[in-house]
Each structure stands twice: as structure tokens, then as C-alpha cells.
Design goal:
Elements lengths: L3 E5 L3 H13 L4 E5 L16 E2 L10 H20 L3 E2 L3 E5 L5 H13 L6 E3 L1 H7 L7 E5 L3 E3 L1 H14 L3 E3 L4 E7 L2 E6 L2 E5 L1 E4 L5 H9 L5 E12 L10 E4 L11 E4 L5 E4 L3 E2 L13 H9 L1 H22 L1 H9 L10 E13 L10 E5 L2 E6 L4 H18 L1
Parallel strand pairs: 1-2, 1-13, 2-9, 5-15, 13-21
Antiparallel strand pairs: 3-8, 4-8, 5-7, 6-7, 10-11, 11-12, 14-17, 14-18, 14-19, 15-16, 16-17, 20-21
Helix pairs in contact: 1-5, 1-10, 2-10, 8-9
Bound molecules: flavin-adenine dinucleotide.
Length: 397
């Protein structure tokens, strides 16, 4: 009899981890528990759908390493399974002379990360690549692509089930107990013993990981990201993706224009503190989520540091005009009258006790249980490489 592996969470990270463990241990048993009725129900199906090429991430970080490899693996996976993957390319545009220094720094980072095909372009070439974009200078990344992560997750779940893995939906894990040589996973009132367990619980990562090792930090702070959908008549004004130069104080990339695999053009996402971890509406509130947020010292330290940006983001959330004023700096011909409210996603952003937003992926281990405590963007892009990295660690422990 082979070993039994358990995975909590069937987002794209949990599914890729389960797939990698099943591939490496064909004689083992793999069980995935997902609390929602379908796989990929949260961050995985509420993202921008961008397959990042590694422009932004600190060289040497897990993000830098796993994004580059993950992009390549995802392209192969999509080709193999007939899933959408379109390298429509991205421009990161500086519209203000003050942004040139930050664009230079970003270029250095991207080059160190070996972003394929990266080029610095001037205003003329910005117009050639994106005829309706404004910009003094830009980085062009032709390898940045789009996909449909929800479809990737569904395909992966089918592949797992066909290979004999047990992917359980509507199966919330309600606690985890440590036992010698493994863990007991409790779901639907039943305890299931596994030899190794990987927690990939996204927006619930801190709560589920705490059952494993008692560690409360880092906490997840949820940031809702809202999108506006460009009316069909203006869709053709953007060919690929147009991004701002990001503010290095934040792990978010700023409101951008993104083409979807469905053909739609979206503007977003902003980053507004969410009062419900898995709440997609502007007025969604869960008392327990708010209580936990305000009880955490890291939250107040973070709030003190970033309240000005917070106020600006909230005003953009309530006013399409304010939202589009920022976006129009990049594509002036798309204004408030050309968009309708679109969907929203909630990012699971881990925050340290000192209030710092944790930038890199964080993975911890404790006696045969591995917890993914921070897997924000580009974790969807990187998922197949995260799975390799996690499987190496799980099987070596
Ligand atoms: C607005 C937005 C835009 C983004 N854009 C991009 C992008 O363009 N490119 C990119 O690479 N990344 C992007 N990301 C990030 C990306 O979506 C996430 O990093 C990635 O989906 C994380 O996957 P995950 O499996 O860890 O989390 P999730 O997809 O959230 O999955 C976690 C799963 O765990 C389940 N779960 C939680 N607790 C339990 C429990 N107790 N029992 C059972 N199941 C449980 C949840 O129901 C959920 O299905 C974006 C994210 C957001 C929110």
C-alpha cells in the first residue's frame, strides 16, 4: 500500500499540488477536500486571467523563480488539453516623467528574471503596439498571456478523478488533528487519516493552517478587486494588456486593461479592504471576519501606514468616474460612459504582525503537514511550478 496524501482546498494551487503528488506517487492515494460545490470557486475563478511573465518579482524570490517556470508549464498544459492560452502581450506604460525612474527599476528586475522577449519602447512604438494607448515610455512583454483559470481548474479536477484521485466537493474541512506519522482531517463529521497533508486554503489559509501548528500569523487580509467591463463598441481599442508602472509599496499591480479569453475587455482590479473574505459585493459583511480583522495588531499597523491609498481606492469603488479617471491616463478614449460594472474578486493577502504586506509566497512545514500561507498573484500563473516545489518538500520531509 502506498502513502495517503490529503489536500485541503481545490483552487488551482490545491489541484496542481494534488496532481503533482499523484504523478510522483502512482501507488499512493490522493484525497482533495473542497468546501464549495465546485472546484476553483474563489480566487481561481475571480482573477484577471493573466499569465504573467515574471516582470515584477524580486530576483531570487519564490515568485520570480516559480512564475517563470510556471508560465512555461501552464502554456504546455493548456496546449495539451485544448485550453485557451493567448500570448497577446503586455505594455507597462509610464505616462508621467516621475514614473521613468520606476520603469527603469522595473526593467532591471525583469531582465534579471529573464523575462522572454522583453523590450523597452518609446512613445512611437507604444502607439504601434497599442494605437490607442498614451505613454512616454513602456516595457513590452510579448510573452505575457491570457487564459481561463476556472477552465484549467475544472480540467485538472477531471484529470485527477480519471486517474483515481478522490476530489470531494461540498466537503469543508472543519478541523485537523495531528497524530503520530500523519494527520486526521475532519470533514462532514468524519475523520480521515492521511500520511501527508497540504493546506491550500486561499482566503482561509491562516485559519486552516492554525489548526496544524497553532501559528496565527501571518493573517489573511482580504482585498476586493472590482472590474469594469468595456462596452463591445470600444473593445477593439486595446489589443492585449495595458498596465501602469506599479507602486513598489504595494503587491498589487494597479488598475489595468486586460483582454479576457472570452474576448471581453476589462478595466481593473482596484484594491479595497473587504469586510467579508469570500464576499464579492460591495456591501458584503461577515461579523466574524470583521471581528478577526480588527482584533489583529498587524491590521491596525497596516491601516495606519496605508490609509490614504485606502481612501482613494474606496472612492474609486463607489464612483465609476473616479475609477476611470485613473484608467484614462493610459487609454484616453475609454471613459466612464464606455464601461459597465463587471465582476469582482477577493485577494488573500497575508499581513505580518508588524503590518507589512507579505510579498513573496510563504510555505511552512510542520511534521508532514505543509501549509501554503501566502499565494497571491502570480500564484495562478505559477501554480504548476508551486506544485513541483511543494511536492519536492513534501516528499523530502
Ligand atoms: C482580483 C484578482 C485578480 C488576480 N489576477 C491574477 C492574474 O491575472 N494572474 C495570476 O497569476 N494570479 C492572479 N490572481 C491571484 C490568483 O487568483 C491566486 O493567487 C490563485 O488563484 C490562488 O489559488 P489558491 O488555490 O491558493 O486559492 P483559491 O482559488 O482561493 O482556492 C482555495 C480553495 O480552498 C477552499 N477552502 C478554504 N477553506 C477550506 C476548508 N476549510 N475546507 C475545504 N476547502 C477549503 C476554498 O473554498 C477555495 O476553493 C488574482 C487574484 C484576484 C483575487
Amino acid at each position: 500500500m502506498g502513502e495517503t496524501f490529503g489536500v485541503v482546498g481545490a483552487g488551482i494551487v490545491g489541484l496542481t499540488v494534488a496532481r503533482e503528488l499523484a504523478r510522483r506517487r502512482p501507488d499512493g492515494t490522493v484525497v482533495v477536500w473542497e468546501k464549495e460545490p465546485r472546484v476553483g470557486a474563489h480566487q481561481t475563478s475571480h482573477s484577471s486571467g493573466v499569465v504573467h511573465a515574471g516582470i515584477y518579482y524580486r530576483p531570487g524570490s519564490l515568485k520570480a523563480e516559480l512564475c517563470t517556470r510556471g508560465r512555461r508549464l501552464l502554456e504546455e498544459y493548456c496546449a495539451e488539453h485544448g485550453l485557451p492560452f493567448e500570448a497577446c502581450g503586455k505594455l507597462v506604460v509610464a505616462v508621467d516623467p516621475d514614473e521613468i525612474g520606476r520603469l527603469d527599476a522595473l526593467e532591471r528586475t525583469a531582465r534579471q528574471n529573464g523575462v522572454p522577449g522583453l523590450r523597452r519602447v518609446g512613445p512611437g512604438e507604444v502607439r504601434e503596439l497599442e494605437p490607442h494607448a498614451a505613454g512616454l515610455a513602456a516595457l513590452h512583454s510579448p510573452a505575457t498571456a491570457i487564459t481561463d483559470y476556472a477552465a484549467v481548474a475544472e480540467t485538472m479536477a477531471s484529470e485527477l478523478r480519471d486517474g483515481g484521485a478522490d476530489v470531494r466537493t461540498s466537503a469543508a474541512v472543519t478541523t485537523i488533528r495531528r497524530v503520530p506519522g500523519g494527520a486526521l482531517v475532519v470533514s462532514r463529521g468524519e475523520a480521515h487519516r492521511v500520511d501527508r497533508l497540504v493546506v491550500c486554503a486561499g482566503l482561509q489559509a491562516d485559519r486552516v493552517s492554525r489548526w496544524v501548528d497553532g501559528e496565527a500569523e501571518p493573517r489573511i487580509v482580504p482585498f476586493r478587486g472590482e472590474y469594469l467591463t468595456v462596452r463591445p463598441e470600444k473593445r477593439s481599442l486595446v489589443r492585449g494588456m495595458v498596465y501602469p508602472v506599479p507602486d513598489p509599496r504595494y503587491p498589487f499591480l494597479g488598475v489595468h486593461f486586460t483582454r479576457r479569453a472570452s474576448g471581453e475587455l476589462e478595466v481593473g482590479p482596484n484594491a479595497v479592504l473587504a469586510l467579508r473574505r469570500e464576499g464579492y459585493g460591495r456591501y458584503d459583511v461577515t461579523a466574524a471576519d470583521v471581528r478577526e480583522l480588527v482584533a489583529s495588531p498587524g491590521f491596525w499597523r497596516m491601516a495606519r501606514r496605508h490609509w490614504r491609498t485606502g481612501v482613494k481606492e474606496v472612492s474609486g469603488s463607489f464612483s465609476t468616474r473616479a475609477f476611470m479617471r485613473t484608467a484614462q491616463r493610459y487609454v484616453p478614449e475609454i471613459g466612464a460612459a464606455d464601461v459597465v460594472r463587471g465582476g469582482a474578486g477577493v485577494r488573500a493577502q497575508a499581513v505580518e504582525r508588524d503590518g507589512g504586506l507579505l510579498d513573496d509566497f510563504r510555505i511552512t512545514e510542520s511534521d508532514g503537514v505543509t501549509c501554503i500561507r501566502n499565494a497571491p498573484s502570480p500564484a495562478a500563473t505559477s501554480s504548476l511550478a508551486i506544485a513541483e516545489h511543494v511536492a519536492d518538500r513534501v516528499l523530502a520531509s
